[in-house]
Amino acid sequence: MFDAWPCLKAYRWMILSFLGTLLLGANAFAQANPTLSIDLGAPKAESSPMLYGLMTEEINYSYDGGLYAELVRNRTFKDGRRNSTAHWFPYERGGAQASMKVDTSTGPSAALPLSVAVTIANATKANPAGISNEGYWGIAVRPHTVYRGSFYAKASSPEMGPVTVALINNDSAQGPHATVSALTTEWKRYEFTLTSGDAPISSDNRLVLSLGKPGTVWFSLVSLFPPTYHNRKNGNRIDIMEKLAAMRPEFLRFPGGNYLEGSSIDQRFQWKKTIGPLVDRPTHMSPWGYRSSDGLGLLEFLEWCEDLKMQPLLAVYAGYSLNHQHVDPGPALEPYVNDALEEIEYVTGSTSTKWGAERAKDGHPAPFKLTYVEVGNEDEFDRSGSYDGRFAQFYNAIKAKYPDLQVIATAPVKTVQPDVIDEHFYRSAAEFFADSGHYDSADRHGPKIFVGEWATREGSPTPNFDSALGDAAWMTGLERNSDIVIMASYAPLFVNVNPGGMQWESDLMGYNALSIYGSPSYYAQVMFSNHRGDQILNAKLDGPADKFFYSVTRDSKNGRVYLKLVNATSDPRPLTIRLDGGKSISGSGRLIQLSARTTAATNSILEPTKIVPVDSTLKNVSARFSHTIPPYCIQVLELETH
Ligand code: AHR
Predict the structure, then answer these.
(1) What is the Cα–Cα distance from 541 to 39, expressed in whole angstroms?
(2) What is the pTM of this model?
(3) Among 113, 263, 447, 614, which residue is least crowded by beta carbons within 10 Å?
(4) Which residues contact residue 101 at a Cβ distance below 8 angstroms, ignoring those fewer than 6 apart?
């Protein structure tokens, strides 16, 4: 039998609001509600044009197995801390026989001094043997798509013949293939192209390299790319970049996070080992328990910025690693300071400088615009107390060579005053509700604030709707104070949702080999960041504010006012909105709304769009109008005023 009560309960606020309007008359009803008064006169302050950006690091398979479009996993035969053939398997068709093992006696370069030796005991043209790679939880194949690949190889004899490369579907054993010319006994790089034709869309594929004659063949740096964003050669996944572009981020903080620091000093992010040809990148162990291919290295971070029109916010290693090892300020720290200066030169220097020329050699002669450099990450964890001295040494050296750069500290310091302080907040929704006014009375004369990492951590692998409410409440506070809070970035951004893909719960967006989805928190970010304005307006609520949050900004170019309203309760929130001091107010506006029935509601890889913003027209807007925010709801009201 149809049970009407849940339905009535869900819509009770609408019914009550309708009855209230009927009984009291629109004006009387408006009178009874709390009033949000907005001053359209002089703005309270200018808001930061850089407020919303991205923070990124190699965590949760963010780059390898994520944004970085490489499809081959363990392409250099070093997995985790070991040399290994993990994710590779012998391939034997019919009666063919092959075995494989890591060979540390030969490799294509000094950075990659090892390879896989594939010994083929038995193979024919009809029944070849070789190796196959399973990719990052599968390899995605889409119809009518061109895949470009390459590998380094040498053979025990030139007679071993050509290598056949194929993308084989695990069910049908079919797939596109190509033949690569016969090998020689010296290391050489080979390229190939695979075109998928009518192949069905699937992630259940593997890459096979096979030969039709017995002998030994060595492979290294086996690589395969699908089409990438902006067709970059060593580029990024298109779907993930499009999701990021929709956030309209202003900056990218990289390369971490803990990934910058490394578990120990020798495992820090060493930028010089992440530039140039891939064959010259040795790869390194990330602090999140897996090896980074470093295919997404310093230049690729910068090109990612270029593609999304973001400014790089460069974090430089500052002599402290996660195992609490630190480098004392003074002469011991000097090489690290110089390394950071050279890194800045690589990013910003003209081609007449040593490192600017190196960048040009790597394919990017034009320098990048850089405003902010961050010294370290979360240095309050350095219990030796060395950060004050380390920061001062970096700050003085950076300012001496680059006086226009703004230098960010990651913990309070005394010796020199940083331009900006980076503060991190990982919290529950309740904590953000209670502290959304965190910066309302912050000191306006000290350093500016960068909220370099923050998130409501409820929901796994990606946050649920309670998190989105906590995030939105927090963001209203950031916006109200964006004269002093000049930048903010949620963290972490990404998670590969396959088993074993996650090291940190509650990540903004999730993906597998084939698709990506945004969490409710992602959509809250998109809504806030796409309706920013450049002025903060004074606004005051007269009435109870139980789990109700707001911020008001205006775009001075066109008079458009953006109201962000957050109702984190299970009851509707009727309001009277008063717009004071405006010359004219258009009777209709736009309403963008993100809501859910429960705080546990969420999106997932199987239900990617359960909770998404809904756009509608807002009618009957005037200098004083009634507006009800549904339960569990985040709204942006876009009003045209002059
Ligand atoms: O975002 C995950 C981690 O949290 C970052 O690597 C680190 O800076 C913070 O502690």
Answers:
(1) 12
(2) 0.94
(3) 614
(4) 85, 116, 117
Ligand 1 centroid distance, CA of 257 (Å): 5
- The verdict on residue 572 lying in a domain is no
Residue 236 forms part of a structural domain: yes
Cα 197 from chain centroid (whole Å): 32
What mean pLDDT is predicted for residues 317-344? 98
CB of 377 within 6 A of ligand 1: the answer is yes
* Rounded mean pLDDT, 611-615: 98
Asked if residue 434 and residue 367 are part of one domain, the reply reads yes
224: helix, strand or coil: strand
pLDDT of residue 543: 84
Query: Which CATH number fits the domain that encloses residue 93?
Result: 2.60.120.260
Higher pLDDT, residue 72 or 19: 72
Q: Report which protein residue has its CA nearest ligand 1's atom 8.
A: 257
State in Å: Cα 57 to ligand 1 middle.
9
Determine if ligand 1 sits within 6 Å of the CB of residue 508: no
What pLDDT, in 10s, does the model give residues 168-187? 999 999 999 999 999 999 99
Q: Which amino acid is at 340?
A: A
Domain at 396, CATH number: 3.20.20.80
Q: Helices in 418-537 by DSSP H: which ranges?
A: 429-434, 465-480, 520-529
pLDDT in tens, 106-123: 999 999 999 999 999 999
| 375: amino acid identity, one letter | V
pLDDT digits (tens, 9 = 90+) for 73-103: 999 999 999 999 999 999 999 999 999 999 9
How far away, in angstroms, is 250 Cα from ligand 1 center?
21
For residue 419, the enclosing domain spans 52-69+230-530
Q: Report if residue 568 sits inside a domain.
A: no
The CA 636 to ligand 1 mean position distance, Å, reads 30
Q: How many domains does the chain have?
A: 2
